[in-house]
Amino acid sequence: MALMALMAEEGTGQCFAAVDLGASSGRVMLGRVGPDRVELTEAHRFANRPVRVAGTLYWDILALYQGVLDGLRAAAAAADGRLAGIGVDSWAVDYGLLDHDGVLLRNPVHYRDDRTEAAVARTLAKVSAQRLYAATGIQFQPFNTLFQLVADGRAQARTALLIPDLICYWLTGNLGTEVTNASTTGLLAAGTGDWATDIAEAAGIDLGLFPPLRQPGELLGPLRPEVSADLGLTQPAPVFAVGSHDTASAVVGVPAETERFAYISSGTWSLVGVELGEPVLDEASRTANFTNECGVDGRIRFLRNVMGLWLVQECLRDWGNPELSALLTEAAEIPGGRSVIDATDARFLAPGGMPARIAAACREAGQPEPSNPAEFLRCVTDSLAIAYRDAVADAVRLSGRAVDVVHIVGGGANNALLCQLTADACGLPVIAGPAEATALGNVLVQARAAGVLDGGLEELRALLRRTRQLRVFR
């Protein structure tokens, strides 16, 4: 009812659908955007449940696509059959492989699968970590697309599509590789917006697998006629490229007033960094494991990956998914700093048994082991705040960009304990919100491409400051 009421309101604005695929769930958000208006409502949410088959962890991509269609159908119905645009964002690095007829060869493999271990060693034997970073500016992660492709070695593949590009291909029939997500692969040359051909050749990867690069805001085409009819649209809906890496869209949704800000896109992962005009490619940045990813309007997202709310999600799953807010209230009463783990440690990457792994890390460090869920959550939130502090300090030191404020966007913006601990640890004010920054960034880029909005990121962010309720933690 709330969705229908939003779309029925009088006033200016056009309707845009943002498909936002996260590591634990997907959703389709419907926004109405005008020069002084941006309103967002959830049209449909659906689970994202990976599946393990014969020892390999896969994404259930067809179930995700069905969720996308169901969500777009709900959005179209609420918008009286008229959508001014559709945009798709998701997590990074993973991809689908198509054959010569454009048919998906298999479900995409999940980045948390351990198949790349041997591929990493083979790749680094051919091209050093220093050379990789100097060329691409991408931090080392064992699941980078570069290593996944080396592990695949599938000769029958004709095309590789990153997850948002795969969804857009199924929606429109058009092939392309959006640049913000391409920059996470370890195959894009830093600061140039083109492929790092020498790195690909050294690693034995055929860049011809990837369709042409495209920028956020480009028109990808209309929906396939049969898709449009299935969704109940009364007129063709254009599909736009957006910041298809969800963090790129989230950073668009940071309501910053000046360039002197740090951001924490806090979801399953926490991406902590600053926004720059040029990449930072020196050895100090490489050894600090900072990454240079493309953002919207040619910006560089200079950031570090922190394990994020994955730690909380996995603990809750192990405990049978109890209600989180009551546990956080109890955790806030526990003295801080009793037990702290390294929230960037790869030991926490895989699913399953998270409380036991956290307890083991505390035990190995000579710290008290948490004994109940509230103590575990206090340990995790303290640890995340410290990891955020270190990442912000390193981003400032390595980039030379001064920071006056830290913006937390994404689901973590709703966690008051985490926001307060971050402000305390960083010694800076924390502005929390919007929680839906990714979907908002997706919608704003579409609205600008459609001519509903104009200006650069500063103007888009000013609109968010005028229209969102934000919380400040001192």
Q: What would you note in describing this structure?
A:
Helix content is 38%, strand content 21%. The chain starts with a helix and ends with a strand. Helix 12 (310-318) packs antiparallel against helix 15. A seven-stranded mixed beta sheet has the order 17-18-16-15-19-20-21, sandwiched between helices. It has a four-stranded mixed beta sheet with strand order 3-2-1-6, sandwiched between helices. A two-stranded antiparallel sheet has the order 4-5. It has helices at 2-8, 61-78, 117-126, 129-136, 145-152, 163-172, 179-182, 197-203, 225-231, 246-252, 283-287, 310-318, 324-332, 354-364, 373-399, 416-426, 437-449, 457-467, and strands at 14-21, 25-34, 37-47, 51-53, 56-58, 85-90, 95-98, 159-162, 177-178, 188-189, 194-195, 213-214, 219-222, 238-240, 261-266, 270-276, 291-294, 300-306, 405-409, 430-432, 471-473. With 474 residues, it is α+β, with helices and mostly antiparallel strands. The chain contains 18 helices and 21 strands.
